[in-house]
Design a protein that fits this description.
The chain is an alpha/beta fold. It folds into 3 domains: 341 residues, Glycosidases (TIM Barrel, Alpha-Beta Barrel); 100 residues, Sandwich (Jelly Rolls); 143 residues, Galactose-binding domain-like (Jelly Rolls, Sandwich). The chain has 10 helices and 33 strands. The strands form 8 sheets. It has an 8-stranded parallel barrel with strand order 4-5-8-9-10-11-12-13, surrounded by 4 helices. Strands 21-20-19-23-17-26 form a 6-stranded mixed β-sheet, with no helix packed on it. The longest helix has 18 residues. The protein is globular. Belongs to the glycosyl hydrolase 35 family. Its EC number is 3.2.1.23.
Length: 629
């Protein structure tokens, strides 16, 4: 039951009042209705996949204590269907039903945002990478245009819908509305596509209510609302709600994404969004009793390889997102009530008739006792842990990860150079970061992302330019190996460049000293997804410690566990695992230098820290810190 907040039955989930509620829209479209009475949605967005399941309740209660009565959440399709037809809605933080039930237990309503596309600074906007194995695939379109895409969407909704149906408000659950796609007006105008998705839900027995989410200009231009559906506005406020009500008078509107912060890319000078102040916006929404959703009230972390990317509209530059999704949100990445949280809580409380719940205690944090840093030791080499190469018939020409059935991680592309004497290697469109070796020698790298002038720069890494490769000592032999180790970073999650395959996506050429250019063929390809099983089965072998691509290991003994951050300031570029959990990517160009490690992933006693760095031959210290910065 609610404590200290609202006394109205409209704010109590179904099971605490009766078996079901009726959530609807007023006849003239002026308001949302719950059991026939006007209802203000005060929602805070958080994503279960970005939060350890052990912290779900804490974060929900944090939102409630700030004055919210609702939680909005994305369902990331590719987090649940990792290969065609193989779904996981049960393990770890993938149990969406458990999260929604927990919202209900804590007297919170739910806005469900299942996509199939969600954006969210999440790899490929939540669409599974396996669809990119089709060279001519079209995404976010109707079945008449590309039946392969819509067939996959139908499979996803068919799997999700029976899990969702019992959790709808009219069935006694907390779900008020289901969103159809996401910000489609920023992508295209295709009413049949949106209607086709709506029909999939209807055929699954879910009658809504539905809603859409768009920027006001895109909505007005592309008319991307759906039949009978409410309208939510990205970057919305009271004035925009009024404007939309004039344009679309039949259905209610809400501020569907009110931004308390913003996203950050690798190479940005600082974390974005910290200067945003929503006090005036929130005050107007509360005063007029308008519905809203804070995107995000708590961002969490894009653990593993799931952080997405953008392409800058002006420059065309690829911009991968950092691992942290702190977003300068009112509730920080580690679940702390920020100064903005306290400020917004006061604004909201002024308009409520009863006192808000007490703020939950913060999760305990730890740093290294005595300030002593971890000092990892060289543990293994990627070169001594290569899997079997793919069949040569698949690799005459290098192909992207997706063509080999790989979604994330790294891949090694290897070919033999005959009569090598140095030259110019054209690998300028690699997706997304490559280190290049001739024989056993590192000769340079290629970064798809621009490394700004203010950032640290690894040795001889080019950007949108051919790589000059020198002769090496082994080149006197008749042939020498060319190794290109490619890291796939985040897939683009917004706009037209979304079909963003990883690995080597175009032919590679080598121009010799005489100016003769040869296209390189007959590759060996070694998939390196760097998944849990791969890390668990690493062989502690390092034949050549002077060839970059090394794993380092440290043991972290703990008497008491708590949240912590691993400070990677003394490292270059790579990935960290703690007790087999992938904390995400680090990169010395910043601005993120610390990776969040939640307490549930630690244990009393010894904890194993594994670091894979693309460049370093020697270990650096790793400090433990209590905050992101």
């Amino acid at each position: 039951m609610p404590t200290h907040s609202e006394t109205s039955a409209a704010d109590i989930p179904a099971q605490t009042v009766r078996s079901g509620h009726v959530f609807s829209f007023s006849q003239e479209g002026a308001s949302f209705l719950l059991d026939g009475e006007p209802f203000q949605i005060r929602s805070g967005e958080m994503h279960p996949c970005r939060i350890p399941a052990e912290y779900w309740q804490h974060r929900i209660l944090m939102a409630k204590a700030m004055g919210m009565n609702c939680i909005a959440l994305y369902v990331m399709w590719n987090y649940h269907e990792t290969s065609p037809g193989t779904f996981d809605f049960r393990t770890g933080n993938r149990d969406i039903e458990a999260f929604i039930r927990l919202c209900q237990r804590e007297a919170m309503w739910v806005l469900l945002r299942p996509g199939p596309y969600i954006c969210g600074e999440w790899d490929l906007g939540g669409i599974p990478a396996y669809l990119l194995s089709y060279p001519d695939i079209q995404l976010r379109t109707d079945s008449a245009t590309d039946p392969r895409y819509m067939s996959a969407v139908a499979r996803y909704i068919g799997e999700l819908s029976p899990r969702i149906e019992p959790l709808l408000a009219n069935n006694g659950g907390p779900i008020l509305m289901i969103q159809i796609e996401n910000e489609f007006g920023s992508y295209a105008s295709n009413p049949p596509y949106l209607e086709e998705i709506r029909q999939l839900w209807l055929h699954a027995g879910i009658q809504g209510p539905f809603y859409t989410e768009d920027g006001i200009r895109q909505l007005e231009q592309n008319r991307t609302n759906v039949t009978g559906g409410a309208i939510a506005l990205s970057n919305g406020d009271a004035e925009q709600i009024a404007a939309v009500r004039r344009e679309f008078p039949a259905v209610p509107a809400m501020a569907g994404e009110v931004y308390p912060g913003w996203l950050t890319h690798w190479g940005d000078e600082t974390f974005k969004g910290s200067s945003v102040d929503l006090s005036i916006t929130l005050d107007a929404l509360m005063q007029q009793k308008l519905s809203f959703n804070l995107y995000v009230i708590h961002g969490g972390t894009s653990f593993g390889f799931y952080a997405g990317a953008n392409v800058d509209a002006a420059s065309g530059e690829y911009q991968p997102d950092i691992t942290s999704y702190d977003y300068a949100a009112p509730i920080s990445e580690q679940g702390v009530a920020t100064s903005r949280y306290m400020q917004y809580r006061r604004v909201i409380a002024r308009y409520l008739s009863t006192r808000l719940p007490d703020i939950p205690d913060p999760v305990p944090t730890i740093s290294r006792e005595g300030g002593q840093a971890l000092m990892p030791e060289r543990y293994a080499s990627i070169w001594d842990n290569l899997p079997a190469a793919l069949p040569i018939a698949q690799t005459v020409d290098p192909l992207p990860f997706e063509r080999y059935g790989q979604a994330f991680g790294f891949a090694l592309y290897r070919t033999k150079l005959h009569g090598y004497r140095g030259g110019v290697l054209d690998l300028r469109n690699v997706h997304d970061y490559a280190t290049v070796f001739v024989g056993e020698q590192y000769v340079g790298g290629v970064s798809r992302a621009l490394v700004p002038e203010h950032c640290a720069r690894p040795l001889n890494v080019t950007h949108h330019a051919p790589l000059t490769v020198p002769p090496v000592s082994s080149s006197t032999h008749s042939e020498v190996l060319l190794d290109i180790l490619v890291e796939g970073m985040g897939r683009v999650n917004y706009g037209y460049p979304m079909i963003d395959r990883k690995g080597i996506v175009e032919p590679v050429t080598l121009q010799d000293a005489q100016g003769s250019s040869n296209t390189l063929t007959n590759w060996e390809v070694f998939p390196l997804p760097m998944d849990t099983a791969f890390i668990a089965n690493l062989r502690a072998v390092c034949t050549n410690p002077r060839k970059a691509g090394l794993f380092f290991k440290a043991i972290l003994p703990l008497d008491t566990i708590g949240d912590t951050y691993l400070d990677m300031s003394n490292w270059t570029k790579g990935v960290v695992w703690v007790n087999g959990h992938n904390l995400g990517r680090y990169w010395n160009i910043g601005p993120q230098k610390r990776l969040y490690c939640p307490a549930p992933w630690l244990r009393p006693g010894d904890n194993e820290v594994i670091i894979f760095d693309l460049h370093q031959l020697e270990a650096g210290p790793v400090e433990l810190a209590r905050t992101l910065s």
